[in-house]
């Protein structure tokens, strides 16, 4: 039957050693995190230079990035399955570079946001292709293990990116942060094309057609397991994105940590990286579902504790208490990220490109409105973020439970 291709196992033998492959894929996917987190220390300076009067508008520099990614992933997914992974990566990097140039020369918030959307559209190519390359060569728990190690390396980027951005601001202007993106994108492309062969042979490519796109999309969208895991991922990431978008406000405005902001941000990012390492060592033995179940309950428990502290301290828990609880909660996020994505991708076989596109796009379309909604309530307390964590954590747990229920054939 036509749907047989969707459950085909990966047959491509990995060409690179695990260490180099993990490092390369982590760098490919980390262009997204770099493009977001390196900008966080510059938001105040951008607001001054571009005369942005409402501080909430600067959060759009982060949150609207995911809108561009949502559309970019829908475009590059079919391209990846039809033209191959290498074509997708080079095209995406070129568009990413064009968007970066627009941002460098922006003289208004509107132009900057347009550039950010173009940037995000382009960076979706390397991200989607990297996920497809991983799925081409690994499946199931093995894929979750590789994804966890990739996440462990990947997390170094959000740990270091704010410090990287702040160092550039110390010597140069915020425009030079975008200049660094051009250099890093170029080096990433050179490494990939000199070392990683194509993982989707021509005889396995799916020529693009609207009819085939419709058939493939219907299959993916009608797969309850794929959709429920994707929605779970979207809601939990949405609440986390609200924190990322507001992190500069939280640490530099609400808690007045000044130049220590990158250190607090890095500490909490380390929690996710540490969780990814633990997940990589345990997932083959315990399985993705058991680890995710523990992580969902952990997320709900720690965020409920944060909300209780916000109510006790009138929205301003002691900084050490806030960081301690967020460290534990983000550890649960680290367990969820790689596993939920792997479980959603598992049934998709040769349509890994389109599958990664729909999963990534749909989760982004869910997470961005969630983040913007939560962010709109943030003033000078942590209560809106805590409420968002708990509320959308409950929704995440419901979708995870629906995905775990036995599926019946119609």
UniProtKB/TrEMBL annotation:
InterPro entries: Efflux_drug-R_Bcr/CmlA, MFS, MFS_dom, MFS_trans_sf. Residues 21-408 form the Major facilitator superfamily (MFS) profile domain. The chain crosses the membrane at residues 21-40, 60-77, 89-107, 113-134, 146-171, 177-194, 226-244, 264-284, 291-314, 320-340, 352-378, 384-403. Pfam families: MFS_1. Keywords: Cell inner membrane, Cell membrane, Membrane, Transmembrane, Transmembrane helix, Transport. It is found in: Cell inner membrane; Cell membrane. It comes from the Bacteria. It is a multi-pass membrane protein. Belongs to the major facilitator superfamily. Bcr/CmlA family. PANTHER family: MAJOR FACILITATOR SUPERFAMILY, POLYAMINE TRANSPORTER 2-RELATED. This is Bcr/CflA family efflux transporter. It comes from Paraglaciecola mesophila.
């Amino acid at each position: 039957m036509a749907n047989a291709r969707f459950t085909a196992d990966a047959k491509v033998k990995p060409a690179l050693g695990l260490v180099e492959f993990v490092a390369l894929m982590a760098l490919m996917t980390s262009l997204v995190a770099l493009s977001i987190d390196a900008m966080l220390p510059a938001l105040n300076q951008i607001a001054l230079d571009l005369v942005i009067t409402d501080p909430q508008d600067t959060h759009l520099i982060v949150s609207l990035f995911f809108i561009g990614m949502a559309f970019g992933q829908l475009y590059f997914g079919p391209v990846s399955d039809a033209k191959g992974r290498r074509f997708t990566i080079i095209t995406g990097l070129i568009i990413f570079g064009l968007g970066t140039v627009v941002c460098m020369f922006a003289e208004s918030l509107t132009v900057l946001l347009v550039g950010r959307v173009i940037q995000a559209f382009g960076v979706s190519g390397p991200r989607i292709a990297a996920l497809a390359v991983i799925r081409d060569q690994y499946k199931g728990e093995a894929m979750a293990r590789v994804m966890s190690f990739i996440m462990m390396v990947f997390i170094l980027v959000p740990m270091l990116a704010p410090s990287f951005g702040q160092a550039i601001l110390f010597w140069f202007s915020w425009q030079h942060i975008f200049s660094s993106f051009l250099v890093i994108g170029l080096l990433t492309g050179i490494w990939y094309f000199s070392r990683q062969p194509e993982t989707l042979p021509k005889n396995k490519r799916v020529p693009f057609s609207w009819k085939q796109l419709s058939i493939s999309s219907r299959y993916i969208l009608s797969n309850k397991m794929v959709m429920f895991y994707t929605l779970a991922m979207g809601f939990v990431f949405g609440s986390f994105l609200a924190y990322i978008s507001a992190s500069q406000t939280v640490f530099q405005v609400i808690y007045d940590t000044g130049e220590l902001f990158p250190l607090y941000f890095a500490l909490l990012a380390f929690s996710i990286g540490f969780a990814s390492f633990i997940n990589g060592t345990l997932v083959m033995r315990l399985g993705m579902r058991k680890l995710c179940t523990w992580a969902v309950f952990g997320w709900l428990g720690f965020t409920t504790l944060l909300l209780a502290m916000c109510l006790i301290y009138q929205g301003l828990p002691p900084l050490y208490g806030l960081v301690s609880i967020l460290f534990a909660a983000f550890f649960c996020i680290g367990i969820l990220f790689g596993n939920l994505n792997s479980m959603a991708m598992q049934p998709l076989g040769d349509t890994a490109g389109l599958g990664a596109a729909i999963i990534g796009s749909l989760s982004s379309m869910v997470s961005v409105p969630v983040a913007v909604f939560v962010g709109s309530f943030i003033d000078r307390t942590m209560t809106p973020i805590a409420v968002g964590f708990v509320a959308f954590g409950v929704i995440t747990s419901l979708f995870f439970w629906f995905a775990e229920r036995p599926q019946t054939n119609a």
